[in-house]
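This part of the workshop introduces the protein records we will be handling. To make this concrete, we reproduce a full record directly below:
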Amino acid sequence: MKKFLIGVLLSFVMFALSFSLFSGFSFFIAIFPIAVLAVPFICAVTEALIFFIDEKWGFKWDGAVVLGIATITTLPFYPSCVLVAPIYIGALGYYVGRRIM
């Protein structure tokens, strides 16, 4: 549980910082409440898939699962770099947060 919470926190911080760099202040404030709800949910789904793959097949494909979930999450936003890049950076933060522990 501690590994999950560190991953979610690092993912949210990296998403918020990169999103604030790519967008204006008003757009950041408009998206922030959605991000507060979406980031922990996406991290929970990612953690569930990692656990399922590890239990079912015994593979340690954490990086591939994190990248796959980030790709699925960004599909609706591909024409705009403003949301795609922060989602991938947030996924990288989650992966690094999982590796810290």
Q: What stands out?
A: The chain has a mean pLDDT of 86. The CA atoms of residues 74 and 84 lie 6 Å apart. The chain has one domain: 1-100. Residues 1-100 form one domain.
